[in-house]
Amino acid sequence: MCHDYTCSCELQSCLQHQSYSEDFLRVMQLYHHPYSMDSQKVRLALEEKGIDYTSYHVNPLTGKNMDASFFRMNPTAKLPVFQNGAHIIFRAIDIVQYIDRLTISLNGEDKPISNEVMEWMQKIEGWSSKIFTLSHVPDKYRLFVSKFIRRVTIARMAEAPDLASVYHVKLREAYDIEDKLRDPDIVKQSEEKLARLLDDAEMQLNKTKYLAGDELTIADSMFVPVLARITLLDLEEEFINCRPKIVEYYNLVKRRPSYKVVIGKYFSGWRKHRTLLKTLFFLGIRSMLRRY
Fold first, then answer.
1. What fold characterizes domain 115-288?
2. What is the pLDDT of residues 85-143, one digit of tens each?
3. Cα–Cα distance between 203 and 104 in angstroms, integer?
Protein backbone atom coordinates (compact mmCIF):
# COMPACT_ATOMS: atom_id res chain seq x y z
CA MET A 1 0.00 0.00 0.00
CA CYS A 2 1.13 3.51 -0.67
CA HIS A 3 1.98 6.21 1.83
CA ASP A 4 2.27 9.96 1.31
CA TYR A 5 4.94 10.02 -1.33
CA THR A 6 4.31 9.27 -4.99
CA CYS A 7 5.03 5.66 -5.80
CA SER A 8 4.36 3.01 -8.43
CA CYS A 9 3.22 -0.34 -7.08
CA GLU A 10 1.51 -3.63 -7.97
CA LEU A 11 -1.23 -5.49 -6.15
CA GLN A 12 0.15 -7.08 -3.03
CA SER A 13 2.12 -10.29 -3.37
CA CYS A 14 -0.48 -12.49 -1.69
CA LEU A 15 -2.53 -12.26 -4.89
CA GLN A 16 0.26 -13.10 -7.31
CA HIS A 17 -0.30 -16.86 -7.34
CA GLN A 18 -3.85 -16.50 -8.66
CA SER A 19 -4.93 -15.78 -12.21
CA TYR A 20 -6.56 -12.41 -12.83
CA SER A 21 -7.43 -10.33 -15.84
CA GLU A 22 -4.96 -7.64 -16.91
CA ASP A 23 -7.58 -4.98 -16.12
CA PHE A 24 -7.27 -5.78 -12.41
CA LEU A 25 -3.46 -5.65 -12.50
CA ARG A 26 -3.21 -2.09 -13.72
CA VAL A 27 -1.52 0.32 -11.37
CA MET A 28 -4.20 2.27 -9.56
CA GLN A 29 -3.83 5.99 -9.03
CA LEU A 30 -5.38 8.10 -6.31
CA TYR A 31 -5.43 11.89 -6.35
CA HIS A 32 -6.08 12.99 -2.79
CA HIS A 33 -5.02 15.09 0.17
CA PRO A 34 -4.52 14.01 3.81
CA TYR A 35 -6.98 16.67 5.04
CA SER A 36 -9.74 15.71 2.61
CA MET A 37 -12.32 13.67 4.53
CA ASP A 38 -13.49 11.84 1.40
CA SER A 39 -9.88 11.06 0.54
CA GLN A 40 -9.46 9.49 3.97
CA LYS A 41 -12.48 7.26 3.36
CA VAL A 42 -10.95 5.88 0.18
CA ARG A 43 -7.44 5.53 1.58
CA LEU A 44 -8.71 3.64 4.63
CA ALA A 45 -10.56 1.23 2.31
CA LEU A 46 -7.44 0.74 0.18
CA GLU A 47 -5.25 0.14 3.23
CA GLU A 48 -7.72 -2.28 4.82
CA LYS A 49 -8.03 -4.24 1.56
CA GLY A 50 -4.24 -4.27 1.10
CA ILE A 51 -4.39 -2.74 -2.38
CA ASP A 52 -1.37 -0.78 -3.58
CA TYR A 53 -1.75 2.41 -5.56
CA THR A 54 0.15 5.38 -6.89
CA SER A 55 -0.40 8.40 -4.65
CA TYR A 56 -0.70 11.97 -5.89
CA HIS A 57 -1.21 14.81 -3.41
CA VAL A 58 -3.53 17.57 -4.65
CA ASN A 59 -3.91 20.35 -2.07
CA PRO A 60 -7.30 22.10 -2.45
CA LEU A 61 -6.27 24.80 0.03
CA THR A 62 -3.67 26.00 -2.46
CA GLY A 63 -5.95 25.58 -5.48
CA LYS A 64 -4.08 22.66 -7.04
CA ASN A 65 -7.42 21.01 -7.79
CA MET A 66 -8.16 23.98 -10.05
CA ASP A 67 -5.19 23.34 -12.35
CA ALA A 68 -6.41 22.79 -15.91
CA SER A 69 -4.83 19.32 -16.18
CA PHE A 70 -6.72 18.12 -13.10
CA PHE A 71 -9.87 20.00 -14.06
CA ARG A 72 -10.03 18.27 -17.45
CA MET A 73 -9.94 14.91 -15.72
CA ASN A 74 -12.42 15.91 -13.00
CA PRO A 75 -14.55 19.03 -13.71
CA THR A 76 -16.05 18.89 -10.20
CA ALA A 77 -12.53 19.69 -8.88
CA LYS A 78 -13.39 17.59 -5.83
CA LEU A 79 -11.18 15.05 -4.10
CA PRO A 80 -10.50 12.22 -4.27
CA VAL A 81 -10.18 10.98 -7.83
CA PHE A 82 -9.49 7.28 -8.36
CA GLN A 83 -8.13 5.96 -11.64
CA ASN A 84 -7.67 2.34 -12.68
CA GLY A 85 -6.53 2.33 -16.29
CA ALA A 86 -9.12 4.27 -18.26
CA HIS A 87 -11.66 3.93 -15.46
CA ILE A 88 -12.00 7.18 -13.44
CA ILE A 89 -14.29 7.55 -10.41
CA PHE A 90 -14.99 10.76 -8.45
CA ARG A 91 -17.40 10.15 -5.56
CA ALA A 92 -15.94 8.58 -2.41
CA ILE A 93 -18.85 6.17 -1.91
CA ASP A 94 -18.53 4.93 -5.51
CA ILE A 95 -14.76 4.51 -5.18
CA VAL A 96 -15.09 2.56 -1.93
CA GLN A 97 -17.68 0.23 -3.47
CA TYR A 98 -15.46 -0.24 -6.51
CA ILE A 99 -12.51 -1.16 -4.27
CA ASP A 100 -14.66 -3.67 -2.39
CA ARG A 101 -15.94 -5.29 -5.60
CA LEU A 102 -12.41 -5.35 -7.01
CA THR A 103 -11.05 -7.15 -3.97
CA ILE A 104 -13.87 -9.71 -4.08
CA SER A 105 -13.20 -10.35 -7.79
CA LEU A 106 -9.47 -10.75 -7.22
CA ASN A 107 -10.12 -13.26 -4.46
CA GLY A 108 -12.57 -15.22 -6.61
CA GLU A 109 -15.41 -14.65 -4.16
CA ASP A 110 -19.09 -13.95 -4.70
CA LYS A 111 -19.94 -11.70 -1.77
CA PRO A 112 -22.00 -8.58 -2.56
CA ILE A 113 -22.11 -5.64 -0.17
CA SER A 114 -24.73 -6.36 2.50
CA ASN A 115 -27.80 -4.18 2.87
CA GLU A 116 -26.70 -3.16 6.36
CA VAL A 117 -23.28 -1.98 5.15
CA MET A 118 -24.88 -0.15 2.23
CA GLU A 119 -27.39 1.58 4.49
CA TRP A 120 -24.61 2.87 6.74
CA MET A 121 -22.57 4.06 3.79
CA GLN A 122 -25.51 6.02 2.39
CA LYS A 123 -26.30 7.47 5.80
CA ILE A 124 -22.70 8.66 6.23
CA GLU A 125 -22.58 9.98 2.66
CA GLY A 126 -25.78 11.92 3.38
CA TRP A 127 -23.96 14.24 5.77
CA SER A 128 -21.76 16.83 4.06
CA SER A 129 -18.84 18.01 6.18
CA LYS A 130 -18.23 21.25 4.28
CA ILE A 131 -20.61 23.61 6.10
CA PHE A 132 -19.81 22.01 9.45
CA THR A 133 -16.06 22.32 8.90
CA LEU A 134 -16.02 25.86 7.56
CA SER A 135 -18.39 27.10 10.26
CA HIS A 136 -15.82 26.07 12.87
CA VAL A 137 -12.84 27.65 11.13
CA PRO A 138 -12.01 31.21 12.31
CA ASP A 139 -13.45 33.73 9.84
CA LYS A 140 -10.12 35.40 9.12
CA TYR A 141 -8.55 32.13 7.97
CA ARG A 142 -11.60 30.91 6.08
CA LEU A 143 -12.07 34.18 4.19
CA PHE A 144 -8.36 34.42 3.42
CA VAL A 145 -8.30 30.93 1.87
CA SER A 146 -11.63 31.48 0.08
CA LYS A 147 -10.39 34.70 -1.51
CA PHE A 148 -7.16 33.01 -2.59
CA ILE A 149 -9.03 30.09 -4.19
CA ARG A 150 -11.34 32.44 -6.10
CA ARG A 151 -8.30 34.27 -7.50
CA VAL A 152 -6.70 30.95 -8.46
CA THR A 153 -9.91 29.94 -10.25
CA ILE A 154 -10.03 33.20 -12.21
CA ALA A 155 -6.34 32.84 -13.15
CA ARG A 156 -6.85 29.26 -14.37
CA MET A 157 -9.92 30.36 -16.33
CA ALA A 158 -7.74 32.85 -18.22
CA GLU A 159 -5.19 30.11 -18.94
CA ALA A 160 -7.81 27.63 -20.21
CA PRO A 161 -10.67 29.62 -21.82
CA ASP A 162 -12.23 26.43 -23.17
CA LEU A 163 -13.02 25.50 -19.55
CA ALA A 164 -14.42 28.94 -18.65
CA SER A 165 -18.01 27.76 -18.21
CA VAL A 166 -16.97 25.04 -15.76
CA TYR A 167 -14.73 27.42 -13.82
CA HIS A 168 -17.68 29.82 -13.56
CA VAL A 169 -19.65 27.03 -11.89
CA LYS A 170 -16.91 26.66 -9.26
CA LEU A 171 -16.92 30.40 -8.63
CA ARG A 172 -20.68 30.38 -8.10
CA GLU A 173 -20.32 27.45 -5.71
CA ALA A 174 -17.72 29.37 -3.68
CA TYR A 175 -20.03 32.37 -3.29
CA ASP A 176 -22.95 30.07 -2.50
CA ILE A 177 -21.01 28.45 0.33
CA GLU A 178 -20.22 31.85 1.85
CA ASP A 179 -23.94 32.73 1.71
CA LYS A 180 -24.86 29.48 3.48
CA LEU A 181 -22.29 30.08 6.20
CA ARG A 182 -23.98 33.39 6.99
CA ASP A 183 -27.28 31.57 7.58
CA PRO A 184 -27.36 30.26 11.19
CA ASP A 185 -30.22 27.88 10.36
CA ILE A 186 -28.16 26.08 7.69
CA VAL A 187 -25.19 25.79 10.04
CA LYS A 188 -27.46 24.46 12.80
CA GLN A 189 -29.02 21.90 10.43
CA SER A 190 -25.56 20.58 9.55
CA GLU A 191 -24.69 20.10 13.22
CA GLU A 192 -28.04 18.46 13.97
CA LYS A 193 -27.61 16.02 11.08
CA LEU A 194 -24.17 15.08 12.38
CA ALA A 195 -25.57 14.59 15.89
CA ARG A 196 -28.26 12.24 14.53
CA LEU A 197 -25.65 10.25 12.65
CA LEU A 198 -23.55 9.92 15.79
CA ASP A 199 -26.58 8.98 17.90
CA ASP A 200 -27.45 6.22 15.42
CA ALA A 201 -23.86 4.97 15.52
CA GLU A 202 -23.86 5.03 19.34
CA MET A 203 -27.01 2.85 19.38
CA GLN A 204 -25.54 0.41 16.87
CA LEU A 205 -22.24 0.15 18.74
CA ASN A 206 -24.14 -0.93 21.82
CA LYS A 207 -24.94 -4.09 19.85
CA THR A 208 -21.88 -4.69 17.66
CA LYS A 209 -18.14 -4.09 17.74
CA TYR A 210 -18.16 -2.18 14.45
CA LEU A 211 -20.91 -0.39 12.53
CA ALA A 212 -22.20 -3.39 10.60
CA GLY A 213 -21.19 -6.29 12.82
CA ASP A 214 -18.18 -7.67 14.66
CA GLU A 215 -15.82 -7.21 11.72
CA LEU A 216 -14.64 -3.92 10.22
CA THR A 217 -16.24 -3.16 6.85
CA ILE A 218 -16.15 -0.41 4.25
CA ALA A 219 -18.90 1.30 6.28
CA ASP A 220 -16.30 1.87 9.00
CA SER A 221 -13.81 3.14 6.41
CA MET A 222 -16.35 5.85 5.63
CA PHE A 223 -17.31 6.60 9.25
CA VAL A 224 -13.90 6.90 10.91
CA PRO A 225 -12.94 10.05 8.92
CA VAL A 226 -16.07 11.73 10.31
CA LEU A 227 -14.65 11.23 13.81
CA ALA A 228 -11.23 12.40 12.63
CA ARG A 229 -12.78 15.62 11.28
CA ILE A 230 -14.41 16.29 14.65
CA THR A 231 -11.04 15.72 16.32
CA LEU A 232 -9.26 18.04 13.87
CA LEU A 233 -11.70 20.81 14.79
CA ASP A 234 -11.18 20.19 18.53
CA LEU A 235 -14.86 19.32 19.01
CA GLU A 236 -14.43 15.89 20.61
CA GLU A 237 -15.94 17.00 23.92
CA GLU A 238 -19.16 18.11 22.29
CA PHE A 239 -19.65 15.34 19.74
CA ILE A 240 -17.59 12.28 20.73
CA ASN A 241 -16.78 12.13 24.44
CA CYS A 242 -20.47 12.31 25.38
CA ARG A 243 -21.03 9.04 23.51
CA PRO A 244 -19.14 6.27 25.39
CA LYS A 245 -19.56 3.55 22.77
CA ILE A 246 -18.18 5.80 20.04
CA VAL A 247 -15.23 6.63 22.32
CA GLU A 248 -14.57 2.91 22.74
CA TYR A 249 -14.95 2.30 19.00
CA TYR A 250 -12.71 5.26 18.09
CA ASN A 251 -9.94 4.05 20.41
CA LEU A 252 -10.23 0.61 18.81
CA VAL A 253 -9.86 1.80 15.21
CA LYS A 254 -7.02 4.16 16.14
CA ARG A 255 -4.90 1.09 16.88
CA ARG A 256 -5.33 -0.29 13.37
CA PRO A 257 -2.38 0.13 10.96
CA SER A 258 -4.70 1.69 8.36
CA TYR A 259 -5.65 4.51 10.72
CA LYS A 260 -2.05 5.20 11.65
CA VAL A 261 -1.02 5.48 7.98
CA VAL A 262 -3.99 7.48 6.70
CA ILE A 263 -4.93 9.72 9.64
CA GLY A 264 -2.69 9.32 12.68
CA LYS A 265 0.41 10.34 10.73
CA TYR A 266 -1.11 13.78 10.07
CA PHE A 267 -3.57 14.38 12.89
CA SER A 268 -1.74 13.32 16.06
CA GLY A 269 -0.86 16.17 18.41
CA TRP A 270 1.32 18.90 16.92
CA ARG A 271 1.29 17.34 13.43
CA LYS A 272 -2.10 18.80 12.50
CA HIS A 273 -0.94 22.30 13.44
CA ARG A 274 2.28 21.88 11.46
CA THR A 275 0.42 20.95 8.29
CA LEU A 276 -2.02 23.85 8.61
CA LEU A 277 0.70 26.39 9.41
CA LYS A 278 2.78 25.29 6.42
CA THR A 279 -0.22 25.71 4.13
CA LEU A 280 -1.11 29.15 5.50
CA PHE A 281 2.51 30.29 5.17
CA PHE A 282 2.57 29.08 1.56
CA LEU A 283 -0.67 30.92 0.79
CA GLY A 284 0.63 34.07 2.45
CA ILE A 285 3.77 34.13 0.30
CA ARG A 286 1.84 33.47 -2.92
CA SER A 287 -0.73 36.14 -2.07
CA MET A 288 1.99 38.68 -1.32
CA LEU A 289 3.68 37.92 -4.64
CA ARG A 290 0.29 37.72 -6.40
CA ARG A 291 1.16 34.31 -7.77
CA TYR A 292 -2.07 32.52 -8.42
1. Glutathione S-transferase Yfyf (Class Pi); Chain A, domain 2 (1.20.1050)
2. 888 998 999 999 999 988 877 666 667 788 999 999 999 999 999 999 999 999 988 99
3. 30
